[in-house]
Amino acid sequence: MVLRLDHSSEDFASRFDAFLKTKREVSADVNADVAAIIDEVRRRGDEALHDLTLKFDRLDTRAAGLRVTEAEIAAAYEATDPKVIAALQLAHDRIASHHARQMPKDDFYEDALGVGLGSRWTAVEAVGLYVPGGTASYPSSVLMNAVPAKVAGVERIVMVVPAREGELNPAVLAAARIAGIDEIYRIGGAQAVAALAYGTETIEPVSKIVGPGNAWVAAAKRQVFGIVGIDMIAGPSEVLVIADGDNNPDWVAADLLAQAEHDTGAQSILVTDDAGFADAVVEAVERQLDTLSRSDTARRSWRDFGAVILVPDWDAAVPLANRIAAEHLEIATGDPEALADRIRNAGAIFLGRHTPEVIGDYVGGSNHVLPTARSARFSSGLSVLDYVKRTSVLKLGAEQLRQLAPAAITLAEAEGLTAHARSVGIRLNQGDTGGAGG
Amino acid sequence: MVLRLDHSSEDFASRFDAFLKTKREVSADVNADVAAIIDEVRRRGDEALHDLTLKFDRLDTRAAGLRVTEAEIAAAYEATDPKVIAALQLAHDRIASHHARQMPKDDFYEDALGVGLGSRWTAVEAVGLYVPGGTASYPSSVLMNAVPAKVAGVERIVMVVPAREGELNPAVLAAARIAGIDEIYRIGGAQAVAALAYGTETIEPVSKIVGPGNAWVAAAKRQVFGIVGIDMIAGPSEVLVIADGDNNPDWVAADLLAQAEHDTGAQSILVTDDAGFADAVVEAVERQLDTLSRSDTARRSWRDFGAVILVPDWDAAVPLANRIAAEHLEIATGDPEALADRIRNAGAIFLGRHTPEVIGDYVGGSNHVLPTARSARFSSGLSVLDYVKRTSVLKLGAEQLRQLAPAAITLAEAEGLTAHARSVGIRLNQGDTGGAGG
């Protein structure tokens, strides 16, 4: 039975608090194992990759080669259903044109004193993209991670993907080709993360590592953070649907199940002001569950983490939505924009009855890598900004230095930093360069 | 003796590689201690804070109160030298006006298909600012961390600062008041980070924690990451000065020492094309060292991690600078802009002979919280962007859904996600809402 909460019940506040605190993920402590693997890759390079890939993926990369060949990528592309290729291409083009609008602009100006200030954006030089193997190997995720990097101007994008017993998903390689990635290695796990961070004989290190992965991959990313940049550590997916009674319960049920089928730890929540509609959705979910290819996963997710919350009106819904801070928020009401304007914490908002979240997973153009586990309170979905960095620029002439020097010296002295004070003071009352040429 | 490297020597490449890999920080493994402290604060709340503060800071907060009172803040402001207040106010105003330009703009548009796409920026609701105690308690850092948060629109900024034996730096409280912070707690260490992340009876939790701290604070931030957002984990400070022979060696020496006096792990590097100038700077450093209030720290930093690198020309300097990816880069050459244009990796660049890095520490207007330890390859200095998050917005009507549905369904099926496919497919060939009202 799915959890049902009623805003008007006396114990709602405490039950909602408890619901928010539910842990949906038990991550095994693999830190020590991961540290050992990273250490081995640092010491033994390619040899470690060969050994670990043979052990974990039952693949002999000494024979197959670490790098996926151009011919293999081309063959995978040819082997992929042309309908899928066309859909990936459409997705690629829509993602690229939306993300192009995110490119931040440089800003240089002189202030009233004549001080030159600037912010200059440049792309990260090399990025590693982790792609999981097996059933979680999604071509759409390859596009979502790689396209913003290309748009940002990242010159080198390196993909790693484990090939259990040699198997690679052709659609993943096709997506990589569509995204313009040609440097792909058939390695996975913590060893792949270590190779990207530290480099081996075959693999040049990168500056940042992105992409989802299992507990080993997540732990490895945490451990190499600092040596390289990493993206967020993603948790199980979630959707919050705010819907009135004018919706078709089957549509809303389908949306809740689209989230639930991802993972037994996924979470689907309905908030509605219509008790009859809530009942109808719960029934529709039960009906649809039996017909899904991943019905076991969806059933467990819905049973363990699903929730249906009845509210008296949308005023009551807004603070709940902001506390849930859902990765995905669908608003299917008469005036979805009015409600959306009041939502502060959400990874992505899908407006109206014809915007199922799934469109955003594939072809909407916006990114499907979004903050999970309430982290939309403080973080954003993946974007071009994740692949660029800002350098600030400052320029003073002798006159500007004279104007700002006294305050700088005062603060340096107040902080007990006499060399700081001298670095400013020594430049006052002297020639233009203070040097032989001045 | 400071390390001297000559680009023209045969073993330069390997010596430069070794130099880049030098570890400047030995961080004690305090993870287990920190985990225990966090656990205690989560279980016992205020009581844990009282006990831990008595133990670590020898301060009885049961008597003094956890929160610094309004009267204490006002008294500290009054007790601070008016010259320092004026300098802090100038710094505040310059930081505020520069950072106001960083506020990202919302972007809503319809594409050619009529799909509505948007990016909406909102401020993080509550931010915790960690301020170290003792000699590292810098009022300038309070401004650098707090002002961008205010500019971003963060409603609640909570400061924590350890008060060893009750002592607080009045200038730090004055800076907080100038920045508009009135919620301040006299706690520090891992216990303060835990209180900010999880909350106690007295302290409401925040959504993000920023600010520098010792090994315990850094470990605690890593451990609570995910529950709240965190800023970068800062390492020891560093400066790279690229200077020609037309500079006054005393000026450049002063700049190198301003960095070195921060910390024995700080790093100061000179790159020059003039061997005689290099010698003159090394001599000037030795001469100035004796006159500093923190000469022991500066001497150790310069001896252990300082470097002087001779290059034949600036073409040779550019790739070195990009690999060093310095937190601070001063360019004191005839045409500093031309050289700066070729630098890709740097936290902040200071142009010309009259822009000592110290100006950027205090009153330049740009932020002094910058990426250390080569992380400028993939990250940026603190900015308004660290205090806002983006929600993406998508809106389709029935017609747009009809156009995008086939590709979305194709990709969902290719990924084996039948509930995804249904969530889109079920909305086709039906009325406007599919519901009773449709």
Question: Can you put this structure into words, describing what you see?
Answer:
The structure is a homodimer of 438-residue chains. In chain A, 45% of the residues lie in helices and 15% in strands. With 438 residues, chain A is of the alpha/beta class. Chain A has 3 domains: 3-24 and 235-364, Nitrogenase molybdenum iron protein domain (Rossmann fold), CATH 3.40.50; 31-234, Nitrogenase molybdenum iron protein domain (Rossmann fold, 3-Layer(aba) Sandwich), CATH 3.40.50; 396-438, Single alpha-helices involved in coiled-coils or other helix-helix interfaces. In chain A, strands 1-11-10-9-12-13 form a 6-stranded parallel sheet, sandwiched between helices. The first copy, chain A, has a 5-stranded parallel sheet with strand order 6-5-4-7-8, sandwiched between helices. In chain A, strand 9, helix 10 and strand 10 form a beta-alpha-beta unit. In chain A, helix 4 (70-79) crosses helix 7 (170-179). The first copy, chain A, is globular and about 85 Å long.
Supply database-style keywords.
Rossmann fold, alpha/beta, 17 helices, Single alpha-helices involved in coiled-coils or other helix-helix interfaces, 438 residues, homodimer
